[in-house]
Design goal:
With about 210 residues, this protein is of the alpha+beta class. It has four helices and eleven strands, in the order E-E-H-H-H-E-E-H-E-E-E-E-E-E-E. A hairpin with a 2-residue loop joins strand 6 and strand 7. The N and C termini lie far apart (about 50 Å).
């Protein structure tokens, strides 16, 4: 006989991300020969993107997205400085990736295996993508450093984390509001959320350092 499929649900909200209004003089626009509005719009997008990346990495899930580190199940714990292991079900190992910050990457780069080979190596296909135990590494400096009880490394299917961006980034130029002062304002905002889709099989696991 067949079996019934039980499906849960993960509700993704739309938290508002915005940057403070940047004001600049009308004379500046007239005097400069490049697109100042486009330049500032890019800076605003970068600023909002950094905050969103932080939340989608380590966010609490309270009035902000739940980050992938927060949502992931703890795999095998280990002492700081020891080589990590990818404690993920075989189903999710194909295409799985590591994620940690530059400081952790430096620590791992000094570790060798029993044959004297460094664990962290350049990819034979892409020199910009380091490989660890046969899987590519993503550097994300919003991950914490290795320290007691911290969660500095994750491994698994990043595609299991869904990032919701409602209508993308919007840049608004305020030409009239500050005209009396000879200024133009520009601001940006985005509505976004994120969440890990995990049916209990642990597509992403986090490496947690021991308490001491």
């Amino acid at each position: 006989g067949g079996s019934n499929v039980t499906m849960g649900q993960k509700v993704l909200h739309a938290y508002l991300y915005s940057a403070k209004i940047i004001k600049f003089s009308i004379q500046l626009v007239q005097d400069l020969s490049f697109d100042i509005e486009g330049y500032l719009g890019g800076k605003i997008g970068t600023r909002i993107g950094r905050v969103l990346n932080t939340h989608q990495t380590t966010g609490t899930g309270v009035n902000q997205p739940q980050g992938i580190v927060t949502a992931a199940a703890v795999g095998r714990p280990g002492a700081t400085g020891l080589a990590p292991t990818g404690d993920v079900a075989e189903l999710y190992r194909t295409g799985a990736k590591w994620m940690f910050n530059d400081t952790t990457a430096l620590a791992i780069s000094l570790i060798v295996d029993g044959n004297g080979r460094f664990l962290l190596q350049d990819s034979v296909r892409d020199s910009d993508v380091p490989m660890l135990l046969g899987h590519p590494v993503v550097i994300n400096n919003d991950m914490v450093d290795m320290a007691a009880s911290m969660k500095p490394i994750i491994f698994g299917q990043g595609a299991a984390y869904y990032s919701r961006k409602v209508s993308g980034l919007r840049i608004v130029v305020l030409r009239e509001l500050y005209a009396e002062n000879g200024q133009i304002g520009i601001l940006g905002f985005m509505r976004a959320d994120g969440g890990l889709i995990d049916a209990g099989q642990g597509p992403v696991k986090v490496w947690q350092n021991s308490a001491a």
